């Protein structure tokens, strides 16, 4: 499998509106960050999109992605789902709706806010056939499992994808490391983790928590994501261990 990082930034992106780069060097292209999302792709070509970020259209164009086989949502916060309408273009030419997966709570909220996506409207076809995680464990030859993670007062879903003896974990928007997370993520080959900033945050992992998750799971390789304007690519790269990489838009890694 491989992981394509479509977006690596926090909810406001980098730079923030107003051309605010914070501590990030504007001359370093890897500091320009759109809202977080990844794609997991198997050697056989199955493509799983995780989250429909606010910047989804630009991300798909930049990475020349014109087809996906399923979409997963971590939670319903705007930066993770408000690009959902861009799935319409990926529905064109398909005989059936795109399979979608989310937790029970996330699925309920998505249906409430984007009903036309899941039920069609005014003669337009259904875009996504949404299933909850308690009734699905495999798609297109890729096995997947989810775990609920604390995200301040709410929850988000962390995913583990497995295929051909390799594993990828996507754990974004968490504020605490739980035993359930450690059990599911144990021994993962490639861990993509939330890492908002260096200082602790009430709803997100900070740098030390992200590194701790990598150590406790025994991850072969760790990629930091959901980075804000304080996290300069070159500076952060100098601070991290050899098996920890700073994520950037367009990054591709094999598990």
From TrEMBL:
Domain Metallo-beta-lactamase intervals: 34-226
CDD domains per the UniProt record, alphabetical: metallo-hydrolase-like_MBL-fold (cd16279)
Signal peptide start-end: none
Pfam families: Lactamase_B_2
InterPro entries documented for this protein: Metallo-B-lactamas, RibonucZ/Hydroxyglut_hydro
Gene3D superfamilies in the cross-refs: Ribonuclease Z/Hydroxyacylglutathione hydrolase-like (3.60.15.10)
Name of this chain's protein: Phosphoribosyl 1,2-cyclic phosphodiesterase
